[in-house]
Amino acid sequence: MSEVQSYVRSLQRSQESLTRADRPSVFTMRGRDWDLLDEVFAPIYSPSTGIALDFLGLGPGPGPEPGLGSGLGSGLTDGAAEAEQAPLKGSLLEIGCGTGIIAVTAALAGCGPVVAADISERAVENAARNAARHGVSDRVRAVHGDLFSGLGPGERFDTIFWSSNYVRAPEDYEYRSVHERAYVDAGYAVHRRYLAEAPQWLTAGGSVLLHFSNRGDVEGLNAIAAETGRELRVLATRSVPEGGDMVEHMLLEAVSARTAAAN
Fold first, then answer.
1. Range of the structural domain that residue 205 is part of
2. Reported pTM
3. Which of 61, 72, 124, 211 is the most exposed place for a label (fewest CB within 10 A)?
4. Cα-atom radius of gyration of the chain, to the nearest Å?
């Protein structure tokens, strides 16, 4: 699939997910009910949230979510299985939190403190609502910001995670809504900033994680990582059918290129 076809198709998905007649205000995922506000990314129309939960050791759930297809559990590599057996510990920063499912589930699993950040004010409100719904408002703080701009200068995290908008749009693409930012990244400008800036927000020994897929420009992302002094390690993969394609999702860890060379 060409870059143009890919990003146009993703923008169509963005619009369709906002305007579907069956878009709910509350949905169920992994045995829990979640609020879904308008203008916020809807996890029920994509397998990415469920896969991210499994990658982070916050699954597995009871099986494929409604509408996601029976292939969700197939194609799991040994690395992904290891990730499911080693759940997150300590503090967590989730970038692009959307409804807050990942942040809230992490808090319910014992992580804390947890910060859920999003460039969409509506998503921040949504994440805060779901933290309150599940009784973890004392451990989950939802903040509005562009990547790390909503954080205090002294904050540090054991894990920083972003389930990214991995489809690359042209560098000069102008977003028509904040919702489109959940689907495409113009020129991979946000990916570049994430790889460059995330390490400064880590605790000693912390990890920068990125959920990506082969619908994105993997070669381009690796080039950006090298330019920012990082190397990307594949920790886990999972292949699932999406819209007639077989899509490979991957959990990447961004490490210092110097550290990688030394090892």
1. 3-262
2. 0.88
3. 61
4. 17
